[in-house]
Automatic annotation (TrEMBL):
Cited InterPro entries: DNA_bd_Ku70/Ku80 (IPR006164), Prok_Ku (IPR009187), SPOC-like_C_dom_sf (IPR016194)
Job of this protein: With LigD forms a non-homologous end joining (NHEJ) DNA repair enzyme, which repairs dsDNA breaks with reduced fidelity. Binds linear dsDNA with 5'- and 3'- overhangs but not closed circular dsDNA nor ssDNA. Recruits and stimulates the ligase activity of LigD.
Listed name of the protein: Non-homologous end joining protein Ku
Organism (species): Domibacillus iocasae
GO biological process: DNA recombination; double-strand break repair via nonhomologous end joining
Signal peptide: none
Summary of subunit composition and partner proteins: Homodimer. Interacts with LigD.
The gene coding this protein: ku
Keyword Transport listed: no
Amino acid sequence: MQTIFRGSIEFGLVSIPIKLHAATEDKDIKLRQLHAECKNPIKQFKFCPICNREVDSNELVKGYEYAADRFIVISDEELAGIKSDVEDKSIEIIEFIRLSEIDPIFFDKTYYLASNTAGTKAYALLKESLMTTRKAGIVKITIRSRQRLATIRVFNNQLVLETLHFPDEIRSTMELSKPSSIKLTKKEKETALALVEQMTEKFDPSNYYDEYREKLEKLIKTKIPKRTEQVPDASHILSLMDAMERSIAHIQQQKQAK
């Protein structure tokens, strides 16, 4: 697995060297845009509508649109200064919480926390503590220049880091239209609860798969040309040899005529 972060977990006075690996992968099938006429992929380029020309990457700067069509430029040096203030390779556990206290809407992406050889015992100690107490650690970590809130928990006997959305990233439900108050009868409630109980099963992720991706893969396989070995065309070779022999004879006749 590709390592996307190297650092350490600070657990009290204990430092645990770790490596971070993405725990999930996107298996969505990517379709490219082709020119219908020649079936070749199109190319996208950066174009300035004011200067009316294509621009190179070295001509670009970063900017923030603070009002409609009004921008301020932020230099790489300014960004680097902010990054150095918040970026730290140590992941300090701020506090411990029960996972049940976090609503799933806050969860974002999962990473495996792999132990370096030097921190094996400390790693095992933290993992055992979390498993025994059934708790998770709350941490802050900077991944790819972005500071993230995250939890450290145990999954399949492995420490994992789960990034969380900050509270201000969760949209308010106040923006949604509220359904009008509907009175439900006791019988309706009991019937709905009975239906839920009848349909309740133990969660097994292997029971589910991406039907669209499976059908798309089958479609792609039927459209890919099958490989066939190129068998030399003997008649072509003979005709080519015949043509070359005739050419030699023709040249010799011309020389004799001269």
